[in-house]
C-alpha cells in the first residue's frame, strides 16, 4: 500500500509538468482530427440512417404519438449517433495513449526518479502495440455484450468501470514495464502485484467515466456536440495520462524492489542512482608520507 499511495501523489504532481501537458495534447489532436473527419464525411448520412431505422419501427411511432412526440425520431437520431460515436473515439484515444503517451510517461518517470534502473527490455515495440490492440478489442467486445446489463442500475454502475479497469490494468502495466523490464520480470510483477494493479485499474476506470457527465444534459448537448466531444477526449486523455503516471511510478518502484532495493529506497529513489566509479588516489611522490 505504501507504493500505491506514494505513486498516487507523484502521479498527481507529474501531471502538471510541462512535458506531460504537452504530451496530453498530441493524442487529443489525433483523435480530434479523426472525429472531425468522420463527422464531416459521415454525420449527415449516419443521422439519416438512424432516422430511417427509427421510422421503420411502427410501435415506436405509435408510442411517440401517444405522448404527442411525433418529431421524436428527428431529435433522437443525432443523439444516438453521438452516443454510438463516443466509444470508438474513446477506444482510439486509449490506443494512441498506449502507443505513445504511456511509454513516454514511463520514460519520464524512469529518467527523473530511477536513472540507475537498468533497461532489460526484450520485447519488440510492435508486440506491445498488437497486445494493446487485442486487449482493447476484447474490452470493446465485453462492453458490447454487457449492454443489456446497463439497463439495470446496479450493474450500470459496476460493469463498465470494471471492464475499463481490467483493460487499463492489462495495457498500462505491460506498457510501463515493457520499456525497462524483461519479459520474465514483467510476467512475475504482473502476477505478484495483480491485486494492487487491478485496484489502480478499477479506480482509473471509474475516473474514466467522469467525462461522460458532459453529456448528461441529453438533447440539449447536441448543438455543442463537436466541442463537447473534443473536451471529453481531452479529459479522457488527461485521465489516461494520470493513469499512465500512476502505473509507471508504482510498477517501476515494484521493479526496483524486485531487483533488490528496499521499499524505502524505491519510494525515495535512494540507492537507485547510477554508480559513479571513484577515481584512484593520485600517486604520492617517492619518499612522501601519506
Shape: elongated
Helix count from the secondary structure assignment: 11
> Could you say which structural class the secondary elements and strand pairing correspond to?
mainly alpha
Number of strands: 0
How many structural domains in the coordinates? 1
Following the backbone from N to C, one meets helices and strands in this order, namely HHHHHHHHHHH
Q: Which strand-content bin applies to the residues?
A: under 5%
For this structure, the quaternary state is: single chain
The gyration radius over C-alpha positions equals 25 Å
Q: Fraction of residues in helices?
A: over 70%
Task: Name the average pLDDT.
Answer: 76
Low-confidence stretches: 270-284
Strand count, sense and barrel status of the largest sheet are: none
Quote the distance from N terminus to C terminus. 52 Å
Give a short synopsis of this structure.
The protein is an all-alpha fold. It contains eleven helices and no strands.
Descriptive notes:
This protein starts with a helix and ends in a 22-residue tail after the last helix. It has one domain (2-41, 86-267). Residues 270-284 have low confidence and may be disordered. The chain has helices at 2-14, 18-55, 58-66, 72-113, 125-145, 153-156, 159-178, 183-192, 194-208, 225-258, 263-268. It is mainly alpha-helical. The protein is elongated and about 70 Å long.
Amino acid at each position: 500500500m505504501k507504493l500505491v499511495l506514494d505513486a498516487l501523489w507523484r502521479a498527481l504532481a507529474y501531471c502538471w509538468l510541462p512535458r506531460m501537458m504537452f504530451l496530453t495534447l498530441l493524442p487529443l489532436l489525433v483523435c480530434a482530427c479523426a472525429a472531425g473527419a468522420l463527422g464531416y464525411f459521415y454525420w449527415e448520412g449516419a443521422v439519416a440512417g438512424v432516422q430511417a431505422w427509427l421510422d421503420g419501427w411502427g410501435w415506436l411511432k405509435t408510442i411517440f404519438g401517444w405522448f404527442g412526440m411525433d418529431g421524436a425520431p428527428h431529435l433522437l437520431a443525432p443523439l444516438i449517433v453521438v452516443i454510438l460515436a463516443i466509444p470508438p473515439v474513446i477506444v482510439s484515444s486509449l490506443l494512441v495513449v498506449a502507443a505513445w503517451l504511456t511509454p513516454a510517461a514511463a520514460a519520464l518517470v524512469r529518467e527523473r526518479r530511477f536513472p540507475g534502473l537498468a533497461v532489460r527490455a526484450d520485447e519488440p515495440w510492435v508486440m506491445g502495440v498488437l497486445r494493446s490492440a487485442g486487449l482493447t478489442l476484447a474490452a470493446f467486445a465485453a462492453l458490447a455484450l454487457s449492454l443489456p446489463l446497463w439497463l439495470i442500475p446496479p450493474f450500470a454502475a459496476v460493469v463498465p468501470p470494471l471492464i475499463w479497469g481490467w483493460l487499463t490494468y492489462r495495457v498500462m502495466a505491460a506498457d510501463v514495464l515493457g520499456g525497462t523490464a524483461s519479459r520474465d520480470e514483467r510476467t512475475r510483477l504482473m502476477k505478484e502485484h495483480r491485486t494492487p494493479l487491478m485496484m489502480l485499474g478499477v479506480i482509473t476506470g471509474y475516473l474514466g467515466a467522469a467525462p461522460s457527465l458532459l453529456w448528461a444534459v441529453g438533447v440539449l448537448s447536441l448543438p455543442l456536440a463537436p466541442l463537447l466531444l473534443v473536451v471529453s477526449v481531452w479529459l479522457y486523455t488527461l485521465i489516461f495520462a494520470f493513469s499512465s503516471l500512476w502505473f509507471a511510478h508504482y510498477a517501476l518502484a515494484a521493479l526496483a524492489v524486485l531487483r533488490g532495493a528496499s521499499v524505502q529506497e524505491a519510494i525515495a529513489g535512494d540507492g537507485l542512482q547510477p554508480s559513479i566509479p571513484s577515481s584512484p588516489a593520485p600517486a604520492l611522490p617517492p619518499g612522501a608520507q601519506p
